[in-house]
Amino acid sequence: MTIDKENTKLLKAIEELANPTSKDKTIIKEAVDSFGINTFLLNIEEYDISMTVKDKIIALRNVVDALYKGESNDSSQGGGQSG
Length: 83
Description:
Elements: H1 3-18, H2 22-35, H3 37-42, H4 51-75
Helix pairs in contact: 1-2
């Protein structure tokens, strides 16, 4: 999958979950197009988007971070069965 397709999917997810205003959508899209999704998420506090949308995106970022940390911990544990 290309970066553009991934960004489009993530932008749609943000739109569905955070319900941004048209101004927020424009700022988010321009930031993601210019800097990439990772940089946008890492620096979200710096963007002039509504606090409600910003809070929802930060919560989403935290969930994704937790999932990735869980995956990296799981992969380092080995693959044996328990029980």
